[in-house]
Amino acid sequence: MIERRLSIAPMLDWTDRYCRYFLRLITRHTLLYTEMVTTGAILHGERSRFLDFDPSEHPLALQLGGSEPGDLARCARLGEQWGYDEINLNVGCPSDKVQSGSFGACLMLTPAVVADGVKAMCDAVAIEVTVKHRIGVDEQDSYSALCDFVGSVAEAGCRTFIVHARKAWLQGLSPKENREIPPLSYDTVHRLKTDFPALQIVINGGIKTLQHDHSSVVRIYRDPAQQRRLHAARQTPGVSARRTARLQLHPVQGDAPHRAGRHGQGRSSRPPGFADRHCLTHLHNACG
Length: 288
Prior knowledge:
By secondary structure, the protein is an alpha/beta fold. The protein is about 35% helix and about 15% strand. It is built from 13 helices and 9 strands. It has helices at about 15-25, 40-45, 45-50, 70-80, 95-100, 110-125, 145-155, 175-180, 185-195, 225-230, 240-245, 260, 280-285, and strands at about 5-10, 30-35, 35-40, 60-65, 85-90, 130-135, 160-170, 200-205, 220. Helix 4 (about 70-80) packs parallel to helix 6.
């Protein structure tokens, strides 16, 4: 059973293998997610480039972007074969590019399509299949519509829903603005848990401190110092420059060195007791 009390949300162009390896040095138990990978990229691209990861990254979930049940099932099966602990379907990204591919947040408007994809994946793999979604899309933001969506997808086999506690606007807002401008509604997520007690409901969005932890499960974003503070009680091993420099031992052909080094951007907010004050500087040095 995957521990979901704290997890790092999937972030496109951020939670790559370098980021995840770095985060695992900071926290031992947090559930990590890949950035979203489209089914087309996996099926028609260089699979190892999109699916390879370091064993230390466990527990690790693969987030897929797609809507065609057969493609989702094939990619979920590949993810399981690669050793991922969970398959997650993205039903929350509102970007124009994602919408043009008929996946992401726009799928909330077609619960039956999501249910078909989830069922195909559940039938294809033994590991858990989860869904990350919003509380609504555009004018379809009633609580009854949200319940219809969750109910339909749950009947298809999904038992865990990661809920970004904001609606998404498919037109007029950028992806960044969609993470900030629509108001948060944690109460909606808590109500969802009350009405679906058999499901695991994971709350996501705007969580920056432990005081935001109104439920049993939260998600934290980019701040390494915050992640370190939250896991201090778990006696996470200190981060040494030697361990951090190992990032360069697992290069991906064609990747620029900054893809690893950029993940040290939180060094100025290093918390008290951080094991190696030079660690993040060495990260940049090791990666060029």
